[in-house]
Amino acid sequence: MNGNHTSHEPSPHHDADPGAVIPALDRHVLERTAAHLHERFARVADRPTVDRILAESYREMDRRATVKTYLPLLAGHFADSQLRSLGIAQGIIESPLPRVLFIDDANAGRSQMAASLLLKHSAGRITARSAGLAPAGHLYEDAVAVMAEIDVPLDHAYPKPLSVDVHRAAQHVVTLGCAGQVEQLTGQHYRDWDIPNFVGRSLEDIRAMRDDLERRVLDLMREIGVPADAGSGDGQAAGRADGRREHPPLSMSA
């Protein structure tokens, strides 16, 4: 049932890196998280596979995050996303909503903003995720600031690497200036948006890029066939989009 993803590797309460020391509290949280994930995704993966994915997620978050206070929580969210995507790709989990994945270099600005804008304007009628080819340790402060200006908080967003399963589970993939670095899978629709990296840009430039992203997101929704929610302000960033929809709490059903 699990294909090549089944691997009898150490559970997440063992060190993911032989040289790393995982705090005792983190070990305890990871163990409970692994049990919960296995209960939720038992049809998708066996316990050793869940343990492996969670351990890899923790290691990835630990390697990249600049603030390590919530590493087990971030690892749990990332592992949850991975397992859900694996289930969708395998046809075990039904996902009737259109699935869009935004990819850029660092997953610290453009892709996060695009996913949040899509969630806002679709009012939950489209699934949006984002990922980076080389994720940064945190979101760009200016990106968070310009989104807060239009009442679209990115408080719960965090940079994530592009995983094979998340890529496979997507139906529509939007690359942001990195099309040549992303493999194009059969049966998926790809677009590349030429919006430059935010590094070194002024706040005014990033506001203009935000507005450009919003226009493109609305155009994408029309192409997919999902009209913008009437309460979201078609063509204007108004109202609230909860970026947490991209990272659902572990208690939500798959």
What does this structure look like?
- Residues 1-17 have a biased composition (Basic and acidic residues).
- This is Low molecular weight phosphatase family protein.
- Residues 1-20, 228-254 are annotated as: Disordered.
- The protein has 254 residues and is α/β, with parallel strands linked by helices.
- It folds into 2 domains: 8-90, Helicase, Ruva Protein, domain 3, CATH 1.10.8.1060; 99-246, Response regulator (Rossmann fold), CATH 3.40.50.
- Helices cover 41% and strands 8% of the residues.
- The protein contains 7 helices and 4 strands; from the N terminus they run H-H-H-E-H-E-H-H-E-E-H.
- Strands 2-1-3-4 form a 4-stranded parallel β-sheet.
- Helix 1 (24-40) packs across helix 2 (47-64) and helix 1 (24-40) runs parallel beside helix 3 (71-90).
- The two termini are 17 Å apart.
- 43% of the residues are buried.
- The model is unreliable at 1-19 and 235-254 (pLDDT under 50).
